[in-house]
């Protein structure tokens, strides 16, 4: 039970605290928050809407200064109960046009274009994408999963096929890899919606004795630290994770320090492609 009236505190709600992407974002949040004398309460919704709702209700009851959240599902997250209590909200890691919210995101359409354009330039013609979960992830624009769809949208006509993973993690990447490697004919390349999927896919190629990139080129997304350290260093679309977290925390802190100047801001970072061995065709 947190002390009531926890004022100089920021709540951070993420869908998967085990994913290094969100760990790095949390470090950015904490760096900005502690510099401004704020503590951070980290909540893991574990991709569960029910758990997310519980975290939001707890943070609302504790009257924290602000809440940064990456929503799990499409549709309206019960943020009203925060805003009605004067608690500032910043949507993290996905864009929104909602005027009474702030958001910090990355241009995922451009990120997908960078990945596919690079593979085409390397001579890969038959490109398969391993994307995030369908269903919950194909809903409204505001939804994180729609972001995975945005990563495809940029160059969709150049992608031969999309495999849908149930979750954005290593084991789902391994299963997708086993599925692809069981086929008579391999694609030239696979573009994965995040690095954990790509690392699982890489694990499948090593087990099957398939050479990367000679037999199969691979590109991931996020550029977490494990990407460069992979058995075959992974090409990835880099998201500025620390900056995303720091910017989001700064937005909340600025708003609570001068609410009268409250300007809803929507910050969109530009991703960059980090090319490594996993996609450099000989
Ligand atoms: O790796 C987690 C993924 O979920 C990241 O790409 C982030 O952008 C979110 O979409």
From TrEMBL:
The UniProt record lists the keyword DNA-binding: yes
Residue ranges the record marks as coiled coil: none
The keyword Transcription is annotated on this UniProt entry: yes
UniProt keyword annotations, A-Z: DNA-binding, Transcription, Transcription regulation
GO molecular function, one term: DNA-binding transcription factor activity
Full protein name: LacI family transcriptional regulator
Portion of the parent chain present: 56 to 337 of 349
């Amino acid at each position: 039970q947190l002390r009531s009236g926890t004022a100089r505190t920021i709540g951070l709600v993420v869908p998967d605290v085990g994913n290094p992407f969100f760990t790095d974002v949390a470090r950015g949040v904490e760096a900005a928050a502690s510099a401004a004398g704020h503590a951070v309460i980290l909540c893991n919704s574990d991709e569960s809407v029910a758990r997310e709702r519980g975290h939001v209700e707890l943070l609302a009851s504790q009257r924290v200064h602000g809440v940064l959240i990456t929503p799990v599902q499409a549709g309206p997250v019960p943020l009203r109960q925060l805003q009605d209590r004067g608690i500032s909200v910043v949507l993290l890691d996905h864009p929104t046009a909602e005027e009474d919210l702030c958001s910090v995101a990355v241009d995922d359409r451009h990120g997908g274009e960078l990945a596919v354009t690079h593979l085409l330039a390397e001579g890969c013609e038959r490109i398969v994408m391993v994307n995030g979960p369908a269903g919950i992830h194909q809903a409204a624009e505001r939804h994180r999963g729609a972001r995975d769809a945005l990563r495809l949208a940029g160059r969709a006509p150049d992608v031969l096929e999309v495999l849908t993973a149930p979750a954005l993690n290593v084991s789902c990447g391994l299963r997708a890899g086993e599925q692809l490697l069981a086929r008579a004919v391999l694609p030239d390349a696979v573009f994965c919606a995040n690095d954990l999927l790509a690392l699982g896919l890489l694990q499948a190629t090593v087990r099957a004795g398939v050479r990367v990139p000679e037999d199969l080129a691979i590109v991931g997304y996020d550029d977490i630290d494990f990407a460069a350290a992979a058995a075959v260093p992974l090409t990835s679309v880099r998201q500025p994770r620390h900056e995303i977290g720091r910017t989001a925390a700064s937005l909340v802190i600025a708003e609570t320090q001068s609410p009268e100047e409250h300007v809803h801001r929507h910050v969109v970072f530009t991703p960059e492609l980090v090319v490594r061995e996993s996609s450099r065709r000989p």
